[in-house]
Amino acid sequence: MDEDLVLRAHWGNLEGTHWAVLVRLSTDEDDDGRPADQRGPMTGRDIKSTKEQERDGRRFITKRGGRCVYVYAEPDTSAWRKKRVRLPDGRVVYRVVRPVFEGALEDLKSGQAPNGERLDGLIVYDIDRLTRDNRHLEDAIDVVERFRRPIIDINGSLDLLTENGRATARVVVAMSNKQSADTSRRVRRHHRALEREGIPTGGARPFGWNADKRTLHPQESKYLREGIDRILGGAPVRAVTQQWNEKGITTPRGNSWNTTKLKTLLRNPRLCGYRSRKVRIPNPTTGSENERWEVVYDDEGNSVIGQWDRLVSPEKWQALLEVIGDHMQPGTGHNTRRYLLTGTLRCDKNECGMPLRAAKAGRKENKPEGFFYYTCPDKGAGGCGGGTKIPGPEADKAITELVIAKYEAEAAAREATAAPKTWEGEEELKRVREDIADAKEARQLRILTKDRYFSLLQEYTAKERRLERDRNRWIKQQYSAQGKPVDLRAEWDDLTLAEQRAYVEQTLTAVLVSPAIGRRKPVHTRLTPLFRSGEDDA
User: Fold this and answer.
1) Residue 76: pLDDT over 90
2) DSSP states of 219-244 as a string?
3) What does the DSSP assignment read for 467-499?
4) What are phi and psi of 511, to 5 degrees?
5) Cα separations (Å) of 445 from 63, 300, 433, 436, 469?
6) 533 and 372 Cβ atoms separated by less than 8 Å
7) What angle do CA 263, 279, 454 make, to 5 degrees?
8) What mean pLDDT value characterizes the chain?
């Protein structure tokens, strides 16, 4: 258009111009999932706020001679909360993520809405609906100043069309940002208070408990206890999820189970009655965040007991963690192990010791599709370059048979040998914990210096952790002895690669591969397994 759009908008003249409305709500407007006949009567708080914003925006544009050509909707979108993102240059930063808002600014720059209509300006209900983030405000100001596309509001709290208005907007957004931070801090403190009292908080009900989050669900708690006993008895987590999915057992949200969901549930200290919180730990290698459960402690350093029925004892839950791990181990951001024995096979030529790599067979070798070898890297990659090479499928088959045979032998031995009914280290663990308590008391009375106290505490804590690991392994053995052993031979082909690798790594520390001497030598004769002992798990 010939006339300056910003100047016309400043004087309230929208005649002949095309506008879009941006509507935003910080909370989810979706229905709560209940059937219509189960919902209560509507109140003023039930009005769909984005619809009200759109209606007011359209009315404002029409009364001033303009035309609304598009609506940008942002339901359940925070204009303040930051998320962890990776920039194109690889850096990891925290940013407010609003793809709809950012798309609207790009459309304003080009002067065209997503539906192909000409786009002259953007209207919002007020400055809070536009942004609470200074970085996004500056992006909006750039569109107005450099591209001469007006961004205005209905109630007069936003003025990006003048220098004074832009200065005021920066102050208002800064104050709104602080208000959001203050609200977040108050909510966080409230949740911490609830945690200290062991009170369950909002969100979906946990599997195994009723909607009150306090009493056990009769069927789900039964399934969960049975699943825990199976895993302690040696069954892979995937076998439990597969059984549940076949029976139609779903999550509280009605979804099917997978190993990640079940492990997250099993790692939750709620199972044994402890109050917990979920924390996110940044992985500096990948830039991602790993979630894990954290037990809440009171001022005396004791675990806070939740106000709900526990499912299993703390000792049994600790034994479960010995099997599945207490948290997701940080990775490299992608699956680096696509073959069964990478990381396990090692070159045995002249004590090279390098892990063998998997390499697909060349086309000229006339091997079946997908055929591969395990081979020692060349000297430039740290290997010996001596040509240690073994057919992958045959090596996988030989080691699989070895692992299964070892598992079956150990299962038979467990059935034949009665496990001790008491753990021998109980008294020692009790004494160590008494020593820790005595040291704390001595420090409070200033009997011990700070240096001496922390030196003793480090020593006692290390002993406590070692004894707890021993106790948890004993508990695991108790349940393994009680349960029916897994038929690993029958279930092997149904396991995922990660689960198969777990059995291999639990059985073997490494397998040495000797160079081929002559032809037609069976693969298994070139393999020297190094079995893992009980001490290796400590």
Assistant:
1) no
2) HHHHHHHHHHHHHHTT--HHHHHHHH
3) HHHHHHHHHHHHHHHHSPPP-HHHHGGGS-HHH
4) -130, 120
5) 77, 16, 19, 14, 32
6) no
7) 110
8) 82
Residue 148 backbone class (left: φ over 0; alpha: ψ -120 to 50; beta: rest)? left
Residue listed under structure tokens 């790594």: 505
Kindly state the DSSP code that residue 119 receives in the 8-state scheme: -
Q: In terms of C-beta density within 10 A (0-12 exposed, 13-18 middle, 19 or more buried), how is residue 72 classed? A: buried
Sheet with 372-375, strands from edge to edge, namely 357-360, 372-375, 389-391
Compute the average pLDDT of residues 366-386.
80
What's the one-letter identity of residue 201?
A: T
Rounded average pLDDT over 468-475: 76
CA distance 435 to 184: 41
pLDDT value, residue 110: 94
Q: Which residues pair with 136 in a beta bridge?
A: none
Predicted local confidence at residue 219, as pLDDT: 94
Q: Which residues contact 467 (CB under 8 A, 6 or more apart)?
A: 425, 428, 429, 432
Q: Choose the weakest-confidence range: 31-40, 323-332, 432-441.
A: 31-40
Mean pLDDT of 291-313: 85
Tell me the mean pLDDT in the region 209-223.
Answer: 93
Give pTM, 2 decimals: 0.52
Contacts with 408 (C-beta within 8 Å, 6 or more apart), sequence order: 488, 489
Tokens 């820790």 found at: 436
Residue 418: C-alpha distances to residues 472, 476, 477, 479 (Å):
18, 14, 10, 12
Give the SS3 label for residue 253.
coil
Reference 232, options 441, 426, 482, 21; nearest CA is 482
Q: How far is CA 331 from CA 237, 287, 463, 506, 537, in A?
A: 20, 11, 29, 19, 21
Q: Indicate if the pLDDT at residue 464 is higher than 50.
A: yes
- Of the candidates 35, 115, 20, which has an alpha carbon nearest to the alpha carbon of residue 74? 20
- Structure token pair of residue 336: 């680096």
- The amino acid at residue 285 is T
DSSP per residue, 72-112: EEETT--SS-EEEEE-TTS-EEEEE--HHHHHHHHHHHHTB
Q: Is residue 190 within 8 Å of residue 92, measured between CB atoms? A: no
SS3 per-residue string spanning 3-41: CCHHHHHHCCCCCCCEEEEEEECCCCCCCCCCCHHHCCC
CA distance 50 to 155: 16
Q: Specify the residue for token string 């999915």.
A: 245
